[in-house]
């Protein structure tokens, strides 16, 4: 497997797992999502937000590549998260 294929595989895996996590979270009552679980990011919402912030930061970095991939152009409109704990 070459590097491009490997990166595509990892991107598809990330998309698949994010969908599974968000679907599981949507099945919970809102009160359960925001409940402080004593986890590093507090609640389930805080953890999901951390994943979104991390993905956003990485995608914005990829969008700065000199090749200027068209698929990443919409990221120019997305604000860079201040940190991994700020709710987006």
Q: Helix segment count?
A: 3
Which stretches are poorly predicted, pLDDT < 50 over at least 5 residues? none
Largest sheet: none
- What's the gyration radius in Å? 15 Å
How widely separated are the two ends?
36 Å
How many strands?
0
Fraction of residues in β-strands: under 5%
> H/E series, N to C?
HHH
Structural class: mainly alpha
Helical content class = 55-70%
What form results from the Cα inertia axes?
globular
Question: What is the mean predicted local confidence, pLDDT?
Answer: 92
List the main descriptive attributes of the protein structure presented here:
88 residues, 3 helices
If you had to describe this structure to a student in words, what would you say it looks like?
- This protein has helices at 3-26, 30-34, 44-63.
- It has 88 residues and is mainly α.
- The protein starts with a helix and ends in a 25-residue tail after the last helix.
Task: Please provide a brief summary of the model.
The protein contains three helices and no strands. By secondary structure, it is mainly α.
What's the structural blueprint in terms of helices and strands?
Layout lengths: L2 H24 L3 H5 L9 H20 L25
Helix pairs in contact: 1-3
